[in-house]
Amino acid sequence: AMDTDLSSQDRKDLDKFIKFFALKTVQVIVQARLGEKICTRSSSSPTGSDWFNLAIKDIPEVTHEAKKALAGQLPAVGRSMCVEISLKTSEGDSMELEIWCLEMNEKCDKEIKVSYTVYNRLSLLLKSLLAITRVTPAYRLSRKQGHEYVILYRIYFGEVQLSGLGEGFQTVRVGTVGTPVGTITLSCAYRINLAFMSTRQFERTPPIMGIIIDHFVDRPYPSSSPMHPCNYRAGEDNGAVYPSAEDSQEVCTTSFSTSPPSQCVFTVTKAHFQTPPPVVTDTLKVPVMGLAFSHQLSSSRLSYQPAALGVGSADMGYPVLFAGGLNAAHPHQLIGPGKEGGIPPVPSQPAHGTQADQERLCTPLDGVHYSAATPSSSEDTETVSNSSEGKCSSPHDLLETIFIRKVGAFVNKPINQVTMANLDIPFAMFAPKNVELEDNDPMVNPPESPEAESPLQGSLHSEGSSGSSTGNTHDDFVMIDFKPAFSKDDILPMDLGTFYREFQNPPQLSSLSIDIGAQSMAEDLDSLPEKLAVHEKNVKEFDAFVETLQ
Amino acid sequence: SCPLSTRCCAPPSTAPAMNCRAEVLEVSVEGRQVEEAMLAVLHTVLLHRSTGKFHYKKEGTYSIGTVGTQDVDCDFIDFAYVRVSSEELDRALRKAVGEFKDALRGSGSDGMGQISLEFYQKKKSRWPFSDECIPWELWTIKVNVVNLANEQERQICREKVGEKLCEKIINIVEVMNRHEYLPKMPTQSEVDNVFDTSLKDVQPYLYKISYQITDSLGTSVTTTMRRLIKDTLAL
Fold this sequence. Notes:
The structure holds 2 protein chains of 2 kinds.
Chain A: H1 2-5, H2 8-31, H3 60-70, E1 80-89, E2 94-105, H4 114-132, H5 137-143, E3 149-158, E4 170-179, E5 182-190, E6 213-215, E7 318-319, H6 320-323, H7 455-460, H8 496-503, H9 514-537, H10 539-549
Parallel strand pairs in A: 3-6
Antiparallel strand pairs in A: 1-2, 1-3, 2-5, 3-7, 4-5
Helix pairs in contact in A: 2-3, 2-4
Chain B: E1 6-9, E2 20-30, H1 34-48, E3 50-51, E4 54-56, E5 62-64, E6 69-73, E7 80-84, H2 87-105, E8 112-123, E9 132-146, H3 151-177, H4 191-194, E10 203-204, E11 207-213, H5 217-233
Parallel strand pairs in B: 2-9
Antiparallel strand pairs in B: 1-2, 3-10, 4-5, 6-7, 8-9, 8-11
Main location (chain A): cytoplasm
Region (Disordered) (chain A): 333-356, 368-394, 438-472
Keywords (chain A): Autophagy, Cytoplasm
């Protein structure tokens, strides 16, 4: 009965659309978390290879992983495609930030035209995805990645698991498209409250290396089942070759696009690349093709190194940083130096996973200092080489990546030199800066009123200008996430908490000073007769005015 | 939070019965943030309301060009957005937003105004009547310019406005996702009645941008005061 409703050609088209939609969805999400600005060019001449009439580059590794996760299936009821975005610090602590879900429900729209309306609506949905991926909190985090943390992605297919997002996560719907076989919905569940993370919330997870690829159809949630390291021994052929052109054979056969495929030109900005691609694949046991170790990639801006290395059942996350593979033929702007003057790209040096004890301290040109992180296991040590341009030689040594612990990942004004590095808690850099000084937080313990001569003067006495810090360094720290209820005001872009903090010590009102008050009253009384005289003189004018009101 | 209301504005009397959906967004920004905030909203709407260039062939079919996109970082707001990769379109929007910003700053303005983006279809009329423009979607952004006293306030404003704009983007996407009325895909002879085909790389729906500045404080106060006095004196 289904086939009579939907012609077989329509059915085939629809399946194809959904498949490519899923692949493009993954590309958009992952590319939006690489930490760089994306730019693709419009082309007025139709090209057969731009699905949904949008210029969305295909990073081969990402497509590969997505296809693996899908394993030839399409999103269906109960089988959703999920892209999990997580953050991983230099010490191996990781945290899920977002889960993007592409789901299918049973609500069918039989009337809708597949080759036309569904296609266009899928295109619209991808545009919405482009827009929404920039407005969730993880976007800003991903733009700042590189030093203290990296952003990873993981694709899985099956049941959506949101438990890793912590309490109070929020959901945003990107959109839905009805089709004759069901309604496609795309949404994102994201963790909020990134700025304050107590140590209780995060357990130490096993270090993540490489990718987690779990496509599981009927398997339980990953944390309860062993991870399988994907052993892409990319080294065998001197780098995995990704069928980057595979999909160009599958042109978007829509009824309105008939021209042959043409080259897409993409702008490359911030071309900070070393030319020879690093060949670090042979020793890596993990599927670090996602770590930009495939020979196609010509730079790895910041290599990612887990604190404690060990293969086996370790979860692995895909450092999105590197997922932006650079195909020599199609330069792509996904990799570039970060805003903070990231680490210069790596010259091609193979890393060998054997010399675990060897550490190398690299001083990059920009003066950022690294402290070595010690790998714990020996043989399976996988690290990515990272060095400044040319300063670290010895290609056969194990080069290690190191992270610098900077205070103030989310604070614009770095405060006192309390280095959270001293505190051995996960995500210390995200913890409240003055965690041990919470007692001084005016929001927690309001300051005592200073002693004063008169009660009025005392409570209103100000040590400084209103609104600014009264010497309490905590006021310099903008609490990013403090959201008192019902305090939002569209007129003034300031919430109640901020308002309170800023104006808690306003200057004394002059009229409350007894002397001045008395003085002005006396003045008023004195000037009364004068004023009356003036009004007498102008009585005609006032009469005229009253006339106009008649 | 954002008061996003939908109301249908009455179509011109001569037009066929068609509802124009109207969306209103409100933002409070600092003077120097006006341009970026407006561009963010307008570009987000136009991203959804632009296609690739149509190329018509014999048999009545057509192919569609490719729309590229790019990220834009704001300088005065902690915010980034995606826009269509079209310099012509960007220039057109910047010009309109620039004029709006200047008008907001000008005398006679108390920092309140609104800018509207209207999508319309042309309905050709016979001579001597001129073509009708029938709006089918109207976006209005109400702007309130605030003045901030010190750097700390400005820093907070950067973040707050950034968060607000995130909400607006989500609201815009919600509206877009409703899949409500869109003009039918036109034949070759009708394409200029539906789309703006003047740009070389993309093809937005026909649109126009207009703005108005709220009357300056003076006028409105005088009127109110007069009324007050009149009522009080009960003349």
